Amino acid sequence: MTLLAMSKTQQNAEQKRQAIVLAAKDLFLAQGYGLTSMDTLAQTAGVTKQTVYRYYPSKETLFAAVMQAIRQSDLAPYQFSDGPIEDELIRYGERLLEFHLRPEALGLYRLMLTEGAQNADLFKTFQNTGPRGFLEPLSRFFETRCSQVDDPAFTAGMFCNLILMPRSNILIGQSRSMAIAQQRRHVQQVVRFLLPSILTGSHL
To answer: pLDDT tens digits, residue range 24-50?
Structure first.
């Protein structure tokens, strides 16, 4: 439902919700999850702390909303088609890598690297809202299109880890960015490296 289709009360509520999520995203990425207080967040969003808790009863649920908002910026959820397996995996890999190299996605991953190990609830929220969302469609693809793969979830995880390898170099400062042409070349190399074992069900 768009804002224009909402009542005045609904519009006000949605605007407050969006302001809270935007403020949380900016603060989490700028100063970290642990250092962001709900008081500062409410002040930044221009609402009371009670209003923040009315929409998001905990900081974990708010973090999940931030992750969801960043994921929604990637337009529609990814959908595989019935094209050749190699083409489908390349198309999926290109979109996966391009999304995870965006500044906001890099910022979230950097936050998890620094704070996730000390905060089990935060790590669980990240896993449930983030990686699971892009691993499950790929796992289903392997299950339905590649019957010879005996562990679709494991294969999906290995595939994504290899596709996202450049992210680590960017986060540790070895590389500042990766051009689209470089991303596509990397994805093609990964797919062509893994495809024989995927199609035969063999192990590397």
So the answer is: 999 999 999 999 999 999 999 999 999
Distance, CA of 198 to CA of 149 (rounded, Å): 6
- Taking the C-alpha atoms of residue 152 and residue 161, their distance in angstroms, rounded to an integer, is 14
180: tokens are 């689209």
What range does the domain containing 39 cover?
9-58
Model confidence, pTM: 0.81
Q: What's the rounded mean pLDDT across residues 57-66?
A: 91
Query: How many domains does the chain fold into?
Result: 2
Tell which phi-psi region holds residue 46, choosing left (phi > 0), alpha (psi between -120 and 50) or beta: left
pLDDT (0 to 100) of residue 169 = 86
Does 53 lie in the same domain as 78? no
Residue 64 domain flag: no
CATH of the domain at 49: 1.10.10.60
